[in-house]
Specification:
The protein is an alpha+beta fold and about 210 residues long. It has two domains: about 100 residues, 4'-phosphopantetheinyl transferase domain (Ribosomal Protein L22, Chain A), CATH 3.90.470.20; about 100 residues, no CATH class. Helix content is about 30%, strand content about 35%. It contains five helices and eleven strands, in the order ββαααβββββααββββ. The protein has a five-stranded antiparallel β-sheet with strand order 7-11-10-9-8. A four-stranded antiparallel β-sheet has the order 1-2-6-5, covered by helices on one side. Strands 3-4 form a two-stranded antiparallel ribbon. The protein is globular and about 50 Å long. The chain starts with a strand and ends with a strand.
């Protein structure tokens, strides 16, 4: 399937989705690897990990219509090597997601709803947050909350963020897509974020721009 989405969600923010149906050998030429990147991908023992890694490179190349090399800092935060865009990356099961912006901070998360999440809700939900009473919708609602908090965690550079204690998602009813206000409070102060989410088959995607 390859490229599913490559669209501007704001004036300088581009969101891409890739469905991984290709083999390692099929993805390799699309990734246009440098010699150092070839060494990196071949160092992974797990074939699934290799394919996921290549899908990220193939997707960013198609999004920007050029070879775009991704590097990571000591906190494992991704950057383009030429610093032309801020970038956030997520992958789950057979989907890869990337969000880029020239001038703004970005965060994106993608989750495959493979199992009930209610049993661990107490680890990331706080008493101010709302989950619908209808049991049929609860797991989906919880997955949206989780994705929203992951996206915020990434946009905040993973610094001093506890999902339960530092991030509060304003009450909302789950839909196929929507936007939610969230508050982050930590030692750096208080900041409000608008996080967008949407579903795709059995996946949830959440992203924010600041």
């Amino acid at each position: 399937m390859g490229l599913l989405k490559n669209e501007y969600i704001a004036d300088d923010c581009l969101l891409g989705l890739w469905e991984i149906n290709e083999t390692f050998d099929e993805l390799l030429p699309m990734a246009m690897l440098t010699p150092r990147e070839e060494q990196t991908v071949m160092s992974f023992r797990n074939e699934k990990r290799r394919v996921e890694w290549l899908s990220v490179r193939a997707l960013i190349n198609q999004m920007l219509h050029r070879k775009a090399a991704i590097i990571y800092n000591e906190d494992n935060k991704p950057f383009l090597d030429d610093r032309s865009y801020a970038i956030s990356i997520s992958h789950s099961f057979c989907l890869t997601a990337i969000l880029v912006s020239r001038h703004r901070r970005v965060g994106i998360d993608l989750e495959y709803m493979s199992h009930p999440i209610s049993r661990i809700a107490g680890k990331f939900m706080n008493e101010k947050e709302y989950i619908v009473p209808e049991k049929a919708k609860q797991d989906y609602h919880l997955y949206i909350h989780w994705c929203i908090k992951e996206a915020i965690y990434k946009i905040c550079d993973k610094q001093d963020i506890n999902f339960k204690q530092n991030i509060t998602v304003s009450p909302f009813d789950p839909a196929s897509r929507g936007a939610v206000l969230c508050t982050v409070t930590n030692r750096f102060g208080t900041e409000i974020y608008e996080v967008h989410y949407f579903s795709y088959h059995n996946y949830v995607v959440a992203y924010c721009i600041k």
